[in-house]
Amino acid sequence: MGYGRRIDTLCSLLTAAETFADVGCDHGYCSEYMLKNGLCKRAILSDISKGSLAKAESLLAPYIRSGVAVAVLGDGFKGVPPDTDEVLIAGMGGSEIVSILSDEKYGFIPKRFVFQPMHDGEKLRRYLLKNGGYIERDFTFEDGKFYDVLVGGRIQPNTEQQTYTDAEYEFGKENLREMPTAFVKRTKKLLNNVEKYLLQPNLQTESRIQLEERARRLQGVLNGEVK
C-alpha cells in the first residue's frame, strides 16, 4: 500500500463497508485507501484539530467535491452516525477512545471497528467487552515503536459475551495465544527495563517487591505460563 508499515497494517485490517469513519483522521491516508480501492461508498473524516483535518481535506479534496467524503471538525463521534458500518480510531490513548465510546451524547460501540490505542489497551479491552463489544483480533506490531491494534465490533442481540482472563485483558488474547514476534520483543524490552530498575541500590522495599512481581509476571508471559 505504501503508506508506511503502521498505516499499511491498519489499512490491511479494514474491510468493505457502505460507510466508513476515520475518527482522529490526521493525514487521511486510511480514508484515501478505502476510497481509492472502492471499499466504501461514503467516508467521514473527523478530527478535533483544524490543522490535522485540513491535511485530510487537501489529500481527499476530489472525493469531498464529489460528495463521497465529508470532513467533520469536532470531538469524538460528533458527526458520525451510530449506524456507520466501520470506524477507525488510531493514534489516541485507550482512555481517550473509551471517552469517545462512552460519551453520553455521541458515544456508541461501532458495528465494526479497528482501534489502535497508543497506551491503556487494557482499559479499552475491558470497556469493550463490558459494554456490548467483541474483539476478533488483538495483537502487537512494530514500526519503529510497538503498537497494539484491536479489531472487532458490536455484538448481536442474544449473542454470548466474550470472556477474558486478567492476563488477556492486560496483554491481549491473541498475543498470549500466538506470541507474535513484536509482542515477544516488547515484553523482553519491558522485562529488561524492570531488571535495570531492580539494580538500583536505594530502592525502597515496597518498590522492590512490586518490581520483582512485575518481572516474574513478564517472565511468565515469555515462558508461556501466564494465560
What does this protein look like?
The protein has 227 residues and is of the alpha/beta class. It has helices at 5-12, 29-36, 50-59, 61-66, 94-102, 121-130, 166-171, 173-178, 181-198, 205-222; strands spanning 17-23, 40-47, 69-73, 86-90, 112-116, 133-143, 145-154. Strands 3-2-1-4-5-7-6 form a seven-stranded mixed β-sheet, with helices on both faces. Helix 1 packs across helix 2.
Tally of strands? 7
Shape: elongated
Helix content: 40-55%
Beginning-to-end CA distance, first to last residue: 35 Å
If helices are DSSP runs of H or I spanning 4 or more residues, what is the number of helices?
10
Mean pLDDT equals 96
Category from helices, strands and their pairing = alpha/beta
Strand order of the largest sheet: 3-2-1-4-5-7-6
Strand percentage lies at 15-25%
List low-pLDDT spans.
none
- Structural Rg: 19 Å
- The quaternary structure here is single chain
What letter string, H or E per element, gives the SSE order?
A: HEHEHHEEHEHEEHHHH
The biggest beta sheet reads: 7 strands, mixed
